[in-house]
Amino acid sequence: MKIPDAILDFFLKSEHFFIATHISPDGDALGSSLALSLALESLGKKTIVYDKDPVPEFYRFLPGSEKFTNSLESFASGRQISNLVLLDCNDLERAGLEKITPSRSVVIDHHETEKEFGDIKWIEPQAAATGLMVFHIIKKLGAEITKDIAVNLYSAIAMDTGTFRYSNTTPPVLRVAAELVEAGADPSYISENLYETWSENRFRLLLKFLNSLEISNGVTIAKITLDMFRETGALVSDTENFVGFSRILKSAKISVLFREIENNYYKVSLRSKGKQINVARVAEMFGGGGHRNAAGYKIRSDFKTAKEKLLEALSASSEKHT
Ligand code: 5GP
Ligand code: MN
After folding, report:
1. Which of 112, 127, 194, 298 could form a disulfide with 280 if both were Cys (CB 3.0 to 4.6 A apart)?
2. pLDDT at site 247
3. Can you tell me the distance from the alpha carbon of 43 to that of 37, in angstroms, rounded to the nearest whole number?
């Protein structure tokens, strides 16, 4: 993994950084942002870590998670964001920052779908997680991988590799994970926090998700409605990885979740297995993006039409491969 010199120069020569990541942050977004912030601060630099959405309860074990702010107040009064570091996404809109104009911006990301943004960019779709890219940056900057940094980076990589199960789990990924364990990341403590700390509300929502599942022609489609959130008291962040559950079905080549944001407005999550269908390209057709096997988009439409449009796009995309 070759880090562009301009990225290293940027971190070495500047003193203040505004680190931001995508809305509805996942483990990679949170872990890579916190690790970078902790490392830069250990080198005597100042950082702000921003996410538009709050850190989900089950990620609060990540060391430093209390550093996250969702306030832009001090910047609204005329202070410009000078050194923006965008992690795990590559445009301002994904970070909910479309209203700001940073004077300098750096993008560090591993998504296949890339937008025109950033003065200095390092986008590496081959990287299993943004956390891996941040690991290499931290090492190159000469900062120590402390236990707190290791826990954040291990969690980031664990989440984006399906805990070392997906096809992006390569020998270099496992070597980095081993180094993080040596630096103090405890795999069993982290897995317990990531997977065994669900609230009852979240579990009840999962049951409703499973009950809504339709399976046909290798595609599973599930739906989460606003009523289901009301009935269970679960939060939007509680739906993270629900769509991954349907992967356990042998027949499921593609798994889809429609989550109702408001009336006639849905967030669609797509997952595929293997090389046959690149769901990032499907999501892109609807203005979204992501990775080959995990992608998403938002659509303003009723459920039936949204579903039909997606099924059409999926069959067009699978025809291209046969
Ligand atoms: P999820 O379905 O879990 O929200 O997201 C799966 C992957 O697709 C993540 O890597 C996420 O960053 C990406 N993704 C999800 N929704 C969107 C979207 O609306 N736009 C873009 N560009 N990427 C998305
Ligand atoms: Mn990621």
Report:
1. 112
2. 87
3. 10
Name the closest-CA residue to atom 15, ligand 1: 296
Residue nearest to atom 10 of ligand 1 (CA): 290
Query: Mean pLDDT throughout 297-318?
Result: 95
**Residue 36, ligand 1, Cβ within 6 A:** no
| Probe residue for ligand 1, chosen from 108, 254, 291 as the CB with the greatest number of ligand atoms within 8 Å | 291
Give the burial class of 11: count Cβ atoms within 10 A of its Cβ; 0-12 exposed, 13-18 middle, 19 or more buried: buried
pLDDT at 113: 87
Q: What is the DSSP secondary structure assignment for residue 2, as one 8-state letter?
A: -
C-alpha 303/C-alpha 179 separation (Å) is 46
Q: What is the pLDDT of residue 249?
A: 93
Inter-residue contact 154 to 141 (CB < 8 Å): no
Taking phi first (over 0 means left), then psi (-120 to 50 degrees means alpha), and beta for anything else, what does residue 136 get?
A: alpha
Atom of ligand 1 nearest to the CA of 298: 19
Q: Which of 145, 177, 195 is the last residue of a domain?
A: 195
The last residue of a domain, from among 195, 217, 238: 195
CATH of residue 228: 3.10.310.30
* pLDDT tier for residue 185 given thresholds of 50, 70 and 90: very high
